[in-house]
Predict the 3D structure of the following.
Amino acid sequence: MTGMEITLRDVYDRVTEIGAQLGKIGGHLEGVDQRLESGQARMSDHEARLRALEARPAVPESLEARVSGLEKLAWKMVGAFAAVNTAAVAAEWLLWAHR
């Protein structure tokens, strides 16, 4: 069995390489941390906007009153149309019956 000799210089060189690699990894981790912080700030902003939207009434009261008035008018017109149509059919039937 042959022996392998590792000098202090080999150990020093290897530790220096590992230190340089750890420095690169630390730089990457800082970048990831900054992106996570900005992502959380953006998510917090979106969440605040969603909460504000959820707090608003679905339909403003002024619009609800206008739509309600239009619906009432539409049903009144349907009723008037039905009455006029019924009267026209009755008149047509009377005219046809007395020929």
About this structure: The chain has two domains: 1-56, 60-99. The helical segments are 8-55, 61-97.
